[in-house]
Amino acid sequence: MRLAIDRLTKPIGTLLLVSDDDGGVRALDFDNYEARMLRLLKAHYDDPTLAPGPAPAAVRRALDAYFAGDLGAIDDVLVATGGTPFQSAVWAALRRIPAGTTTSYGALAATIGCPSARRAVGLAIGSNPVAIIVPCHRVIGADHSLTGYGGGLARKRWLLAHEGLELSDGRVRQKRGGNIGSRPQPSRAEKRDFAARRQIDQH
Protein backbone atom coordinates (compact mmCIF):
# COMPACT_ATOMS: atom_id res chain seq x y z
CA MET A 1 0.00 0.00 0.00
CA ARG A 2 1.37 3.41 -0.99
CA LEU A 3 0.66 6.25 1.42
CA ALA A 4 1.63 9.91 1.50
CA ILE A 5 2.88 11.65 4.63
CA ASP A 6 2.72 15.39 5.21
CA ARG A 7 3.80 17.60 8.10
CA LEU A 8 1.37 20.29 9.19
CA THR A 9 2.27 23.08 11.60
CA LYS A 10 -0.61 23.80 13.97
CA PRO A 11 -1.04 25.71 17.25
CA ILE A 12 -0.75 22.43 19.15
CA GLY A 13 2.47 21.44 17.39
CA THR A 14 3.55 19.69 14.21
CA LEU A 15 1.14 17.00 13.01
CA LEU A 16 2.00 14.05 10.81
CA LEU A 17 -0.83 13.28 8.40
CA VAL A 18 -0.85 10.06 6.39
CA SER A 19 -3.32 9.75 3.51
CA ASP A 20 -4.10 7.35 0.68
CA ASP A 21 -4.68 7.89 -3.03
CA ASP A 22 -8.42 8.33 -2.43
CA GLY A 23 -7.93 11.21 0.00
CA GLY A 24 -8.71 9.17 3.11
CA VAL A 25 -6.82 9.86 6.32
CA ARG A 26 -4.98 6.74 7.44
CA ALA A 27 -3.12 8.29 10.37
CA LEU A 28 -2.76 11.60 12.18
CA ASP A 29 -0.27 11.92 15.00
CA PHE A 30 2.15 14.31 16.63
CA ASP A 31 5.68 14.54 15.25
CA ASN A 32 7.33 13.40 18.47
CA TYR A 33 5.32 10.16 18.25
CA GLU A 34 6.31 9.25 14.70
CA ALA A 35 7.71 5.86 15.74
CA ARG A 36 4.39 4.91 17.34
CA MET A 37 2.47 6.06 14.28
CA LEU A 38 4.62 3.90 12.01
CA ARG A 39 4.16 0.94 14.34
CA LEU A 40 0.36 1.30 14.22
CA LEU A 41 0.39 1.59 10.44
CA LYS A 42 2.41 -1.62 10.15
CA ALA A 43 0.00 -3.34 12.54
CA HIS A 44 -3.01 -2.36 10.40
CA TYR A 45 -1.54 -2.82 6.91
CA ASP A 46 0.90 -5.21 5.28
CA ASP A 47 4.16 -3.45 4.47
CA PRO A 48 2.90 0.11 3.87
CA THR A 49 5.14 2.38 1.83
CA LEU A 50 5.27 6.01 2.94
CA ALA A 51 6.55 8.84 0.78
CA PRO A 52 6.42 12.61 1.32
CA GLY A 53 3.34 14.10 -0.28
CA PRO A 54 0.78 16.85 0.33
CA ALA A 55 -2.22 16.12 2.49
CA PRO A 56 -5.57 16.24 0.66
CA ALA A 57 -6.69 19.84 0.29
CA ALA A 58 -10.07 19.12 1.89
CA VAL A 59 -8.39 17.68 4.98
CA ARG A 60 -6.01 20.63 5.26
CA ARG A 61 -8.92 23.07 5.03
CA ALA A 62 -10.89 21.14 7.64
CA LEU A 63 -8.00 21.10 10.10
CA ASP A 64 -7.27 24.79 9.49
CA ALA A 65 -10.92 25.60 10.21
CA TYR A 66 -10.98 23.42 13.33
CA PHE A 67 -7.97 25.17 14.83
CA ALA A 68 -9.47 28.53 13.85
CA GLY A 69 -12.54 27.72 15.97
CA ASP A 70 -14.92 25.92 13.60
CA LEU A 71 -14.99 22.76 15.71
CA GLY A 72 -17.39 20.89 13.45
CA ALA A 73 -15.21 21.30 10.38
CA ILE A 74 -13.52 17.93 10.91
CA ASP A 75 -16.75 15.97 11.40
CA ASP A 76 -17.04 14.90 7.76
CA VAL A 77 -13.37 14.28 7.04
CA LEU A 78 -12.94 10.91 5.34
CA VAL A 79 -11.05 8.49 7.58
CA ALA A 80 -10.00 5.09 6.27
CA THR A 81 -8.44 2.99 9.01
CA GLY A 82 -7.69 -0.69 9.44
CA GLY A 83 -8.31 -2.39 12.75
CA THR A 84 -10.55 -5.15 14.01
CA PRO A 85 -14.35 -4.90 13.91
CA PHE A 86 -14.34 -4.07 17.63
CA GLN A 87 -11.74 -1.34 17.19
CA SER A 88 -13.68 0.07 14.25
CA ALA A 89 -16.85 0.20 16.36
CA VAL A 90 -15.02 2.08 19.11
CA TRP A 91 -13.45 4.53 16.68
CA ALA A 92 -16.82 5.17 15.02
CA ALA A 93 -18.33 5.84 18.45
CA LEU A 94 -15.56 8.33 19.18
CA ARG A 95 -16.63 10.35 16.14
CA ARG A 96 -20.12 10.65 17.62
CA ILE A 97 -18.86 12.55 20.67
CA PRO A 98 -19.69 16.19 19.93
CA ALA A 99 -17.01 18.82 20.35
CA GLY A 100 -17.40 20.55 23.68
CA THR A 101 -18.50 17.38 25.48
CA THR A 102 -16.78 14.34 26.90
CA THR A 103 -17.67 10.79 27.85
CA SER A 104 -16.16 8.06 30.00
CA TYR A 105 -14.72 4.71 28.98
CA GLY A 106 -17.65 2.90 30.55
CA ALA A 107 -20.24 5.09 28.83
CA LEU A 108 -18.48 4.62 25.50
CA ALA A 109 -18.51 0.86 25.99
CA ALA A 110 -22.24 0.98 26.65
CA THR A 111 -22.93 2.88 23.43
CA ILE A 112 -21.43 0.07 21.33
CA GLY A 113 -23.42 -2.57 23.21
CA CYS A 114 -20.53 -3.86 25.36
CA PRO A 115 -21.09 -2.25 28.77
CA SER A 116 -18.61 -4.57 30.52
CA ALA A 117 -15.83 -3.96 27.99
CA ARG A 118 -14.47 -0.75 29.48
CA ARG A 119 -10.90 -2.05 29.52
CA ALA A 120 -11.09 -3.35 25.95
CA VAL A 121 -12.48 0.03 24.88
CA GLY A 122 -9.48 1.69 26.49
CA LEU A 123 -7.12 -0.57 24.55
CA ALA A 124 -8.95 0.19 21.30
CA ILE A 125 -8.67 3.91 22.00
CA GLY A 126 -4.96 3.46 22.60
CA SER A 127 -4.67 1.89 19.14
CA ASN A 128 -6.51 4.73 17.40
CA PRO A 129 -4.19 5.90 14.59
CA VAL A 130 -6.05 9.15 13.86
CA ALA A 131 -5.78 11.80 16.55
CA ILE A 132 -8.13 14.81 16.80
CA ILE A 133 -10.36 13.81 13.86
CA VAL A 134 -11.21 10.57 15.69
CA PRO A 135 -11.38 12.44 19.01
CA CYS A 136 -10.07 10.10 21.69
CA HIS A 137 -9.14 13.24 23.66
CA ARG A 138 -12.85 13.56 24.51
CA VAL A 139 -12.78 10.38 26.63
CA ILE A 140 -12.05 10.98 30.31
CA GLY A 141 -12.39 9.13 33.58
CA ALA A 142 -15.74 8.54 35.28
CA ASP A 143 -14.61 11.02 37.95
CA HIS A 144 -13.93 13.62 35.20
CA SER A 145 -10.15 13.23 35.55
CA LEU A 146 -8.14 13.45 32.35
CA THR A 147 -6.66 9.92 32.70
CA GLY A 148 -4.22 9.44 29.80
CA TYR A 149 -3.71 10.53 26.21
CA GLY A 150 -1.41 9.21 23.54
CA GLY A 151 -0.22 12.71 22.66
CA GLY A 152 0.42 13.67 26.28
CA LEU A 153 -1.86 15.25 28.87
CA ALA A 154 -0.75 18.79 28.00
CA ARG A 155 -2.14 18.35 24.50
CA LYS A 156 -5.33 16.76 25.85
CA ARG A 157 -5.87 19.78 28.10
CA TRP A 158 -5.21 22.10 25.14
CA LEU A 159 -7.69 20.34 22.87
CA LEU A 160 -10.46 20.21 25.48
CA ALA A 161 -9.95 23.88 26.34
CA HIS A 162 -9.95 24.74 22.62
CA GLU A 163 -13.33 22.98 22.38
CA GLY A 164 -14.74 25.14 25.17
CA LEU A 165 -14.45 22.90 28.21
CA GLU A 166 -13.28 24.18 31.57
CA LEU A 167 -10.64 22.31 33.53
CA SER A 168 -9.95 22.67 37.22
CA ASP A 169 -7.64 20.66 39.47
CA GLY A 170 -7.01 18.13 36.71
CA ARG A 171 -10.70 17.52 36.10
CA VAL A 172 -13.08 18.53 33.35
CA ARG A 173 -16.12 20.65 34.07
CA GLN A 174 -18.89 19.85 31.63
CA LYS A 175 -20.53 22.81 29.91
CA ARG A 176 -23.05 21.18 27.57
CA GLY A 177 -24.02 17.79 28.87
CA GLY A 178 -21.37 15.15 28.87
CA ASN A 179 -22.45 11.97 27.28
CA ILE A 180 -22.88 10.65 23.77
CA GLY A 181 -26.23 11.38 22.30
CA SER A 182 -28.01 8.57 20.52
CA ARG A 183 -27.70 8.55 16.77
CA PRO A 184 -29.97 6.02 15.06
CA GLN A 185 -28.43 6.64 11.64
CA PRO A 186 -24.69 6.84 10.92
CA SER A 187 -23.26 10.17 9.85
CA ARG A 188 -22.01 10.83 6.33
CA ALA A 189 -18.44 10.48 7.60
CA GLU A 190 -19.21 7.11 9.17
CA LYS A 191 -20.81 5.84 5.96
CA ARG A 192 -17.70 6.82 4.02
CA ASP A 193 -15.44 5.31 6.69
CA PHE A 194 -17.26 1.98 6.50
CA ALA A 195 -17.07 2.01 2.71
CA ALA A 196 -13.37 2.80 2.81
CA ARG A 197 -12.68 0.00 5.28
CA ARG A 198 -14.33 -2.48 2.94
CA GLN A 199 -11.79 -1.49 0.30
CA ILE A 200 -8.73 -1.83 2.52
CA ASP A 201 -7.93 -5.35 1.40
CA GLN A 202 -8.02 -4.25 -2.22
CA HIS A 203 -5.10 -1.86 -1.79
Give the rounded overall mean pLDDT: 86
Question: What would the CATH topology of the largest domain be?
Answer: Arc Repressor Mutant, subunit A
Q: For the record, what CATH class of the largest domain applies?
A: Mainly Alpha
Largest sheet: 4 strands, mixed
> Can you tell me the number of structural domains?
2
**How far is the first residue's CA from the last residue's CA?**
6 Å
N-to-C order of helices and strands:
EEEHEHHEHHEHEEH
Strand portion, in percent?
15-25%
Number of helices: 7
Report the uncertain regions.
Answer: 176-187, 194-203
Q: What is the subunit arrangement here?
A: single chain
Backbone CA Rg: 16 Å
Structural class label = alpha/beta
* The CATH homologous superfamily of the largest domain: Winged helix-like DNA-binding domain superfamily/Winged helix DNA-binding domain
- Shape, per Cα inertia axes: globular
Strands in their spatial order, largest beta sheet: 3-2-1-4
Task: Give the helix level as a range of percent.
Answer: 25-40%
Q: How many strands appear in the DSSP assignment?
A: 8
Named at the architecture level, the CATH assignment of the largest domain is Orthogonal Bundle
Provide structural commentary.
The protein has 203 residues and is α/β, with parallel strands linked by helices. It has two domains: 2-80, Double Stranded RNA Binding Domain, CATH 3.30.160; 85-190, Arc Repressor Mutant, subunit A. Helices cover 34% and strands 18% of the residues.
